Amino acid sequence: MKGRQGNLLTDRPELYEARFPDPAQLAGRWAEDCLRRYGSGPAVLDLGCGTGRDAAFLHRAGRRVTAADLSATMLAHARVHHPGPVYARADLSGFDFGQRAFDAVVCLDSSLLYCHTNEQLDGFLTSCRRALVPGGLLVAEMRSGAYFLGRDEPSATPSVSAFTWNGTTYRSTTVLHLDRGAQLLRRTRNWTADDGTPPVEERSAWRLLFPQELRHFLGRHGFDVLGLYDGPGPRTEPPWQPGAVPGSEADGDRLHLVARSTHQQEINCVRSD
């Protein structure tokens, strides 16, 4: 049967939430804990908000949340199923919310790593700095480049998983590939379903950043790093729990970042002629 290219879970956000459930709302709770721990104000921008689950949690915690994503389908789902935040379409590598001033920018589940090039990462950090009040926080959670690039190529044997939702079973085979020259973790995932729908092939990639490399980019853009550690976090083993103290190492497969914008004028990282 002929398939198509696309992203099954982005095209159908309800499947995303079924495939990646978060009944304990660990991601949102971890982000709220970081905001409280470092004294953030109430205005939060959630970038790469996806289905809106984490943004809605922060809203219920008393934050004034604007949530942004590039996927119009995800945003439509979020407005219906996770109301409360203001939802807007935006590209992480360059966005502008006008005169809005946020106390914190939150970027979870490796969303930051969709900035594949240095130019895109510069655009992301420039936009964050413009959106934040002086002293505002950047809170991010992502895959760790040091972990993946410091190891052998992932197994060529596909990993297989399945889940059932509304009576239909969805099966996926996934292959990861390290593109070391581009510092990208590339993923090819093929989906089939037992309801007769055509198979779907997904192709995606994440930029892999070393901790010191990330510190360098943040410093160039006027951020002071307050925390950069591998765990505990919402996707670590063991997972984060209330009262957990941030670690001091950065050796695991996840990286957690808290940085504060400085009070100096915005740094121009682009060389002018």
From TrEMBL:
Record's keyword terms, sorted? Methyltransferase, Transferase
InterPro entries annotated for this entry?
Methyltransf_25, SAM-dependent_MTases_sf
Q: Does the keyword Plastid apply?
A: no
Which biological process terms from the Gene Ontology are attached to this UniProt entry? methylation
The Methyltransferase domain covers which part of the protein? 44-136
- UniProt keyword Methyltransferase, yes or no: yes
Q: Do you know which SUPFAM superfamilies this protein is assigned to?
A: S-adenosyl-L-methionine-dependent methyltransferases
Molecular functions (GO terms): methyltransferase activity
Identify this protein by name: SAM-dependent methyltransferase
Organism source for this protein?
Streptomyces clavifer
